[in-house]
């Protein structure tokens, strides 16, 4: 289920946090007030916690500014929140899941399959989108600053 209101609220919070208008503590408190059945809202919001720790109150300015890598990730996450895509995870064949489990249980004696490693790489480069094609499609049709009215693209 897509919760557009919650996605808009989270997007606003993330933008304010990313530009230093709010601290990590303020973001955390505001994020806790977003109750949504949308799995994308929950997971993207949790991804933002990678920016900070629980020991210090910080703004993403000065020595805590975002690196180019983190800015790109934030932009991709915000782009996902603007789409009508439900959050989904790629599915692995059963034998790859079993191999991953066995690798964990044997502390790596049984190596992970190539597909599992590929899935983890893939997730980091397009997450929260499922495929690179979904990401490219979202980039081709942005909703902010383009006069999007939900039906057709028009300039206002």
List the helices and strands and how they pair.
Layout: H1 4-18, H2 24-32, H3 39-48, H4 68-81, H5 94-105, H6 114-126, H7 132-140
Explain what the structure shows.
By secondary structure, the chain is mainly alpha-helical. It has a domain at 1-87. It contains seven helices and no strands. The protein has helices at residues 4-18, 24-32, 39-48, 68-81, 94-105, 114-126, 132-140. The longest helix is centred in the first third of the chain and has 15 residues, at 4-18. The model has no long low-confidence stretch (mean pLDDT 81).
Average pLDDT confidence is: 81
Helix/strand-derived category reads: mainly alpha
Strand content: under 5%
- The radius of gyration computed from the alpha-carbon positions, rounded to a whole number of angstroms, is 18 Å
**End-to-end distance:** 30 Å
Structure annotation, total helices: 7
Q: What is the molecular shape?
A: globular
- Series of H and E elements: HHHHHHH
- What is the helical fraction, as a range of percent? 40-55%
Oligomeric grouping of the chains: single chain
Biggest sheet, in brief? none
Low-pLDDT sequence parts = none
Instruction: State the total count of DSSP E strands.
Output: 0
Write a brief structural summary:
The protein has 156 residues and is mainly α.
Essential attributes:
single chain, 156 residues, mainly alpha, 7 helices, 53% helix, globular
């Amino acid at each position: 289920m897509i919760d557009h209101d919650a996605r808009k609220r989270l997007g606003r919070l993330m933008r304010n946090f990313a530009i230093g208008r709010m601290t990590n503590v303020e973001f955390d408190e505001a994020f806790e007030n977003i109750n949504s059945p949308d799995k994308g809202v929950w997971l993207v919001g949790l991804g933002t916690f990678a920016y900070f720790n629980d020991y210090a109150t910080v703004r993403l300015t000065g020595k805590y500014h975002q690196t180019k890598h983190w800015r790109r990730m934030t932009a991709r996450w915000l782009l996902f929140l603007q789409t009508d895509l439900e959050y989904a995870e790629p599915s692995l064949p059963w034998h790859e899941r079993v191999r991953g489990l066995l690798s964990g249980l044997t502390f790596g004696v049984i190596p992970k399959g190539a597909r599992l490693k590929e899935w983890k790489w893939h997730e980091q480069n397009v997450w929260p989108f499922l495929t690179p094609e979904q990401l490219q499609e979202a980039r081709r049709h942005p909703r902010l600053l383009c006069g999007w009215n939900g039906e057709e693209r028009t300039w206002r």
